[in-house]
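Reviewer comment 2.1 asked that we show a complete input and output for one of the modelled complexes. We chose the NAP case, as it is the one discussed in the main text.
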Amino acid sequence: MRLKDKVVLITGAGRGIGREIALLFAQEGADIAICDVNLESAEITAKDIEALGKKAIGLKVDVTNSAQVEEMVNKILDKFGKIDILVNNAGITRDGLLLRMSESDWDLVLNVNLKGTFNVTKSVSKVMIKQRQGKIVNIASIIGLIGNIGQANYAASKAGIIGFTKSTAKELALRNICVNAVAPGFIQTDMTAKLPEDIKEKMLKNIPLGKFGTAQDVAKTCLFLAGGDSDYITGQVIVVDGGMVM
Ligand code: NAP
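Response of the prediction step:
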């Protein structure tokens, strides 16, 4: 058990990669707070974790709203008494070519992906500083490293997360808090299911390992960064993409 008795907060854990991280971490002995804008899916993930014999709480929180985030952190402290690990996973896409991209789609993606990561990290790091220990894992994307046509907003948000990861890693290092990022490539979830088949086929040709990634692939890397095996690693970005970016 690599996360025995740890308390973990995962944002956007109602479905997709976040849900997979929650289930894997629970199997490794952690109690989990699941935050999602969708209460129903957060509660389903929480029930599935309880079925694994661990404690869980599903909370309806919009990560863009700092007051809701603060309230969430207080509720988690009331129930569990501490937060050892934070995974900033909540993220969205609103794709479109630059000249057609609306200001609202720019703002929405930057707000959820980047400001959301800031809001939750700020609230949780206060708790971790008092504890004098913690692990923060931010879910970026290879798009934040290499860019992509039609994803200027998403690429900017994910590149921002990488800069944010490195800055907070430096600020929090002396408090015994490690901050790292995972940059997934093409992972099979609802987010990528909506892409047209011809684009998917084109992407597959650019993946040296010859297959799309799974949420499990990302969750396992998060487990490494959340557990004791990575205690001397901070400020890093681990790419999980079947070799697309090297
Ligand atoms: P997903 O299936 O769309 O799940 C995202 C989750 O985040 C959903 O449960 C969603 O709730 C929740 N969410 C959205 N806005 C939120 C908000 N404002 N506050 C709290 N929760 C919110 O996405 P995914 O594929 O699992 O992606 C998870 C993370 O991995 C994202 O950061 C994404 O950018 C990153 N990523 C994914 C891929 C990929 O290929 N899938 C690749 C690189 C990086 P609803 O159910 O209400 O929408």
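DSSP finds nine helices and seven strands in the chain. We note this here for comparison with the apo prediction described in Section 3.2.
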